[in-house]
Amino acid sequence: MNLTEATIISVAGSVHQPGQRSGDLTELLRGNAGAPFTTFALAVDAALRGIAADRLCADGAASPPTLDVTFVELALMTDEAGRAAAREALSRVAGAYADASIDPGERRLSATVVWSPRQMLQDQMALAGMPVPADPLPLLRADFDAMVKAYAETALTLPPDEKAAAAERLSPAPPADLAALMIASPQTRRLPFDSSVLATTERLIAASQPGYAAVTILAVERALDGDATPVGGILDIDDDAVRSLYRGDWTFNKPTTTK
Fold first, then answer.
1. Dihedral angle sign, alpha carbons of residues 70, 75, 77, 82
2. By CB atoms within 10 Å of each CB, which of 67, 75, 130, 193 scores lowest?
3. DSSP secondary structure, 76-129, as one string
């Protein structure tokens, strides 16, 4: 198959520099080997190549099909401009993970694929039976900073069974996914609490990446099969193997003891 024609749209605050870059996917990811987004992008690319080969090579044509993929790389948090950019980018996708189409005449598979730490967090909450916010956009960095600071000042040293109620009383009240993230982070004053939350986010992403990739690939296949129901969350996937893979070693049920 031809090299993937890739575009990466990075919203401010993500691993890569904000903006849009296009070219060969391997070159675009060079220098970020082993990063969760890199691992995810290469896994999805490999799956899309297989799908394109299955659906566009059956006629025995001599020339290989073309794969055209746009990766929308979101961050957990950003600024107002970043949220606007994320909103515009997500408007291209039906559902939360991916959209795709095939042009048999051009022998081209086109896909838009979303990388969203916040979607991962919300999916983990859904798997834990917790209520999930409806907002898929990155959190505002200023709100994140204010809410994490307020939690550290008022709820960090409370007994575990009192933390959720205390988080709900914060002003401004954090969305349920940020509250869950703070409660699941190490409850310690040995380092700045925002550092604890960000470290927990990194563990969340690492634990979620394999399952998130599997859900994304299933979303692509559904779109190509003409399924009118987009995949909006992990509970839209009735596959125990994928759900188990997604869950990994993540849990919201065991907050670390305060020290």
1. negative
2. 130
3. SEE-HHHHHHHHHHHTT-SSSSEEEEEETTTTEEEEEEEE-HHHHHHHHHHHTT
SS3 assignment, position 25: helix
Phi/psi class of residue 10: alpha, beta or left (left: φ > 0; alpha: ψ in -120 to 50)?
beta
Torsion sign across C-alpha atoms 200, 206, 207, 213:
positive
For residue 191 the two structure tokens come to: 């380092």
Chain-centre distance of CA 214, in angstroms?
12
CA–CA separation, 94 and 113 (whole Å): 10
Q: Which residues pair with 98 in a beta bridge?
A: 113
Rounded-to-5 percentages of helix, strand, coil across the chain? 45, 15, 40
> What phi, psi does 59 have (nearest 5°)?
-85, 0
Specify the amino acid at residue 42: L
Q: How many CB atoms lie within 10 A of CB 191?
A: 10
CB 3 within 8 A of CB 24: yes
Cα–Cα distance list, 247 to 213, 214, 232, 237, 239 (Å): 12, 12, 17, 13, 12
pLDDT in tens, 30-89: 878 778 899 999 999 999 989 988 888 765 666 778 889 999 999 898 888 889 889 988
Question: Which stretch of DSSP H or E encloses residue 69?
Answer: strand 66-73
pLDDT, one tens digit per residue, over 118-132 is: 999 999 889 888 888
